[in-house]
Amino acid sequence: MNGRALVLVLTAAVAHAAWNALAKRARDPLVFLWSSVSLASLGLSPLGAWALARDGWVPGGAVFVAATIGIHAVYFFALGRAYGTGDLSLVYPVARGLGVALVPLVAFAFLDERPSALGALGVALVVAGIAAPLGMEAPEGAGVRPRREGGSRGAGLGWAVLTGLTIATYSVVDKAGVARVHPLAYISLMGLGISAVLMPLVLRRRPALAHEWRTNGPAIAVASTMNLTSYLLVLFAFRLSKAGYVVAARESSIVVSVVIGSVLMREGHVAARLAGAIVVLAGVVCVALAR
Known about the structure:
Layout: H1 3-24, H2 29-55, H3 61-85, H4 88-111, H5 117-131, H6 153-177, H7 183-203, H8 206-224, H9 227-238, H10 243-250, H11 253-264, H12 270-289
Helix pairs in contact: 1-8, 1-9, 1-10, 1-11, 2-3, 2-7, 2-8, 3-6, 3-7, 4-5, 4-6, 4-10, 4-11, 5-12, 7-9, 10-12, 11-12
């Protein structure tokens, strides 16, 4: 992976972990996510319109934009449900790790991207560092912050797995999409589409929407500066490096999420998840050095 792509991806990783932590703290994560994405879409729309007017529309681009809107709508819905029932330091590694594991396989099948031996080793280390701590969970009630009422570890993991499947799918779609549509135009259309698709679900929860803005308005505004923007950096990185490498390096965000979730949010499992984070970092180094 070249240096410019790595800088873009690592910056995106920190921002991604930060806005996910804000969403986890929300009373209704889906409403929070929708609100922040909608706000971000409005801010990015003028830039997207400028890029589209300058570069024009490449034939076939609409197919990828429509596909990513649908996939991302499922992603945000599943992510909201996962954070409603599971810990940040459990949901985030499972969801992101599954994406890392699947993207190189899908990219090999559909984009003919062949990772080098060092790149493949890096991806394997990232996956191992994510998966290993999952079997070392402390018993319920062992000094760990209780889950939200009605939640369960199984439910949280199930939604995290679905989130991971969507991550792998949209990563490959978007790698091909930004080759046809400028990233600014691509992400602006994507954000507006996600907002429109999820709007009926959110409007059914008007009291929750009003409450979220009353209690978490500043947090929504902060998250809106990071969610689509962090992924915009990833889209630019897709133009510079292989999809599997970009997605793997992006998962350095797991280190940040472990610190936020296990330490700052007092979810526990600090030693096991920090050990996994060290393995993740080793994998990221391999990916960064791969060609």
